[in-house]
Design goal:
heterodimer, A: about 70% helix, B: about 300 residues, 6-stranded mixed beta sheet
């Protein structure tokens, strides 16, 4: 009990109701220990930081060298610029003011990816040393020492900010090294390029910092931060498809408006830096006022009971994997619609492109292009199918399988119900993806038969996807601890060989044996049933063997 | 399907690679009784329970649970058992209430009344996401799910780890109710007081082998009663009586241990000396336990004397 006039010794900060103490901490004290914390953040993230810098700059460098061979002349660059000016591409990457130069082409391909990846990466890095450590209690240990309230967060903001600047500098170097600036403009465009990406990254640091104060869990902070970045991206997307006004509401739009290789404007960078500063100051203010471990967003209470359907392995899996299922479906819908919308423009481009393109397409004409796009849908669906299949192993590894199997559920039933998700929903995704490519492409031709035709071409990949699922189940049955890495490794190898196999001149009989290549390359090739039947049988056999083994072996936690 | 033994295990063996977890374990859980299952870390308690759950397959020996085979009849048997692990893993994005419903319904129909009763008894908020629960609250989720069922056999693997004393009392009360209903419990625990309070029988294991088993009374027979007396006259000659051990005298008080069989003779000799006070304690489970791990204790003592 405290009597009136006697200041309580511990004042809960940020509580509602009666006004809390007016005593403030001395601002300087808040940063005590900053140097040690910077070293800690660097030490904990040194590999991560290097990987981010190398991956982003390396990707840009790769695009530069690749485009040098794909676009050998001005004619092909002009065609690419025309493609960039279609609604689909404009929405996805924005339109470069210098679209028909080499710098503009590389910008169109790489800038948005690098900028978005850096911004979201910044959110994750800030959360990692911020809310995540607070949640696990590591920060509590640090704060119990003579360390300022802001020292740890400020250290992670500084390090992540330095990462953004580093990526920007390297991009400028890549751009200068690749002579991406149009002749006679010096290196201004290259510097603007680097600055625009670094600026967006710094906004990402600010967004991550505020998200980490607002949400009380690291998961919440990461999803809030990335959602904000994605909303800003979509805002810009809508703006770029209209008159551009909405793009000015998004910092990503400001980065675009720096117009590397074109207008070469510096002043939007000030907007980016100002926004980043405002966000960081707000985050520091919130941090000074709130209780340790608390956030602004309350933990929402959930249901006190579960519906009956959750008590089946399938019902529970559908609830737990709801978000990935919806996410992959949205990705397929957007991807299919986008691919369908660029078919017409890409056909023109391909006519002027070098001979490499025809190798990749395994043929000429629009049918070859459509077949390639449909196979892309299969490549995306495989990730979904394997992710949901491998969740069986993750549940076993985490031990969460034990209470379920301690219930009256057999291992066969548990596995078969869980596999229903990849089996059924892969078919839905493949059909949906093919259908949307066809439907959107067909709309531009006023040909409504395309949707059904390509839906069938997409569905033809189902047996191939199921072979991968079967392989994953087999590995899980026999080599549970290695199932996850081997499966993803095999998938990555397949992806690579399917896309580039012919370029490597691998023997044809080998390629024909791979599930994706064994699938009829519709609509370029006619649909034939023999390979599909054989692959379905192989998939069933692999799955059966895998479950049979799982039903007989010990449960093996990680 | 009432059998005299809810669990009957004979000569059970299980190896993980080269490490032998069980080397011929015997265990019996009589129907309608609480059987305590004691052993140090790594002695094979959890492995035994996992074999009973059909999660692991025994290499050799015989195990039967509720008259069935734990491995091949797993699904049928699991309709009649409930399990509480010592370290509860839950789905982080589901609430505790949802997890309870799921776990209960996987074995049989859910009794909402009993669920509510147990939620109140264990003071658990079912609307919180599992991610936000402390260790103790996650433990409560598994306990509520197990106790809300009408399972014939409860397999409890250190079920009270992380619970506060009040919740431990709620647990004790619940297990007594279970026993009163004629259901069986296998209670693996480190807490001697808990096992002493609840268990009708105890099995003590060590390095995968059962070293002692029987009712509490039978086990006490195997060991010595602790006696403390205050005598006016000298007591040194007591030390020479048969069955007297660990004899010590300090400041008028004499303490020693007596073998169960020699107790009448020693008491008669004591009575003749007109003791001013006398306290006799039956051996505690803890002493029983420690006696079986005397080797380790001796090792520890040797280590500290170096």
């Amino acid at each position: 009990m405290t009597t009136a006039g006697q200041a309580p010794t511990a004042v809960p900060r940020g509580t509602r109701g009666e006004p809390s103490s007016t005593r403030q901490r001395t601002p300087v004290d808040g940063y005590r220990g900053l140097g040690a914390m910077v070293r800690l953040v660097l030490r904990r993230n040194r590999v991560r930081l290097v990987v981010w810098v190398v991956a982003l700059a390396g990707m840009y460098q790769y695009i530069v060298s690749y485009y040098r061979t794909v676009f050998p002349n001005q004619q092909s660059l002009d065609d690419f610029a025309a493609l960039s000016n279609t609604p689909g591409i404009k929405a996805l990457t924005g339109l470069s003011p210098a679209a028909s130069t080499m710098g503009g082409a590389v910008w169109t391909k790489g800038w948005m990816t690098v900028a978005l990846a850096l911004a979201i990466g910044a959110v994750f890095l800030v959360t990692r040393s911020g809310r995540a450590d607070e949640e696990t209690g590591r920060t509590e240990l640090l704060r119990s020492r003579a360390m300022g309230v802001h020292a740890y967060s400020m250290a992670s903001w500084l390090v992540t900010g330095a990462l953004c600047v580093g990526v920007g500098v390297l991009l400028a170097v890549v751009s200068i090294g690749g002579s991406l600036d149009p002749a006679g403009t010096g290196v201004a465009g290259s510097l603007i390029l680097g600055a625009s990406v670094a600026g967006i990254g710094l906004v990402g640091v600010g967004v991550g910092a505020v998200a980490g104060q607002v949400s009380s869990t690291s998961r919440g902070a990461n999803s809030l931060g990335s959602t904000v970045i994605i909303v800003l991206y979509v805002l810009r997307m809508i703006g770029d498809m209209g008159n551009g006004a909405l793009s000015w509401l998004s910092p990503i739009g400001w980065g675009q408006q720096m117009q590397p290789y074109g207008g070469n404007r510096w002043w939007p960078l000030l907007l980016l830096l100002a926004l980043s500063t405002v966000l960081l100051v707000a985050a520091a203010q919130l941090e000074a006022r709130r209780d340790f471990g608390a956030g602004l967003l309350p933990q929402r209470p959930g249901r006190a009971g579960a519906p009956v359907r959750y008590a089946t392995p399938l019902g529970l899996a559908l609830r737990l994997q709801r978000n990935p299922i919806i996410g992959w479906t949205v990705a397929i819908v957007l991807g299919g619609a986008l691919m369908g919308s660029v078919v017409q423009a890409m056909t023109d481009l391909l006519a002027d492109a070098g001979p490499g393109a025809e190798n990749l397409l395994r043929g000429t004409g629009v049918a070859a292009l459509l077949a390639l796009l449909v196979s892309m849908m299969a490549l995306i669906t495989i990730i979904f199918a394997l992710q949901t299949t491998l969740s069986l192993r993750s549940d076993e590894a985490s031990g969460i399988i034990e209470p379920q199997l301690a219930g009256a559920v057999s291992r066969w039933r548990w596995t078969l119900e869980r596999l229903a998700i990849p089996v059924v929903w892969s078919a839905v995704l493949l059909t949906l993806g093919g259908f949307l490519i066809g439907e959107v492409y067909g709309a531009s031709l006023h040909d409504s038969s395309q949707g059904g035709r390509l839906a069938l071409a997409g569905l033809a990949y189902w047996p191939a996807v199921m072979v991968f699922v079967g392989l994953a189940v087999l590995l899980w049955g026999y080599l549970p601890r290695l199932a996850i890495p081997i499966t993803w490794g095999v998938m990555a190898a397949m992806w690579f060989i399917t896309i580039f196999g012919e370029v490597f001149r691998l023997p044809q009989w080998f390629l024909d044996l791979l599930p994706l290549s064994a699938t009829p390359y519709a609509p370029l090739e006619p649909l034939t049933w023999t390979p599909l039947g054989i692959m379905t049988l192989v998939a069933v056999a692999l799955t059966w063997l895998g479950i049979d083994r799982f039903a007989r072996r010990d449960i093996q936690p990680a | 399907m009432t059998t005299p033994m809810a669990v009957e295990i004979e000569g059970l063996t299980k190896s993980f690679g080269r490490a032998q977890a069980l080397r011929g374990l015997d265990l019996q859980v009589p129907t309608g009784q609480v059987t305590g299952f004691l052993g140090p870390n790594g002695s094979g308690k959890t492995t035994t329970i996992r074999i009973l759950l059909g999660l692991l397959k025994a290499d050799g020996g015989r195990a039967s649970m509720l008259g069935g085979d734990p491995w091949s009849d797993a699904v049928r048997l699991h309709q009649h058992i409930a399990y509480v692990p010592g370290d509860v893993t839950l789905w982080p994005n589901l609430t505790g209430g949802e997890a309870i419903d799921i776990l209960c319904r996987l074995s049989g129909p859910l009794d909402p009344h009993r669920k509510q009763l147990m939620l109140e008894r264990f003071e658990l908020d079912p609307t919180k996401k599992a991610r936000a629960y402390s260790k103790g609250n996650r433990q409560k989720v598994a306990l509520v799910a197990a106790l809300a069922s009408d399972a014939d056999l409860l397999l409890l693997d250190e079920p009270t780890s992380g619970l506060d004393p009040i919740m431990e009392a709620a647990f004790t009360e619940s297990i007594r109710e279970v026993k009163a209903q004629g259901r069986s419990v296998l209670l693996s625990s480190h807490i001697f007081a808990e096992v002493e309070k609840l268990a009708d029988r105890v099995a003590i294991i060590r390095e995968g082998v059962t070293v002692e088993t029987g009712t509490m009374a039978q086990l006490r027979h195997l060991t010595r009663t602790q006696v403390a007396v205050v005598l006016d006259q000298g007591a040194a000659d007591l030390a020479t009586l048969p069955g007297v051990h660990d004899f010590e005298t300090s400041g008028g008080q004499t303490t020693f241990a007596v073998d169960e069989a020699e107790l009448p003779g020693v008491l008669a000799a004591l009575a003749a000396r007109r003791p001013r006070s006398l306290v006799a304690n039956p051996p505690s489970l803890e002493e029983l336990f420690l006696r079986h791990y005397g080797n380790e204790l001796a090792g520890l003592a040797a280590g500290s004397e170096k």
